[in-house]
Amino acid sequence: MPTGVTIRDVREQLFDAADRILLQNGPSALTSRAVTAEAGVAKGVLHRHFADFDAFLAEFVLDRVHRMDAQAAALRGTAGVGSVADNLTDALIALFGSVAVAIVALVTFRDELRARLRDTWPAGVPVLTDAVTMIAAYLAAERDLGRLTPDAVVDALAPTLIGTAHLLFADRGARPDREAVHKAVTAVVAGALVP
Fold it and tell me: pTM of the entire structure?
């Protein structure tokens, strides 16, 4: 990219490049040079917009976490419609089919990134904690509609579903098919479903 040429939406361009690198090659491949090369910009562009690479990564992670708001709203919108297991299966496939699994690995992989995220994210791992909140809100809505038993412990079911799905999707080389995810979801929520 020639010097002096204005780049539109540079932050989003860099974040999208980071997405692609994470999905294709994992967190160990995510470097400032790889991001700027993937984005097609000079390396200095990243450093003009972020204090350093860990500041870039922290903002990238938080941006991707905030994008989950739309997924949460869509899942809540399915309460009372279709089957609970189908709705959860679709939500988990959408969540873990995204860059979410790679972000969890990235946060785990980089000590400095975890330290920076603690300033704005005091507990848990970004993405996973929001995912648990999203699933718990959906399950609570289904319980309120009478599709889950009144004593269904959504605060236990939600992290169990997220942990189960994370284990299914953690191997980037072999994504589970819908049937495998649905089977796992059904096993987790079976005791809470109203017959």
Answer: 0.77
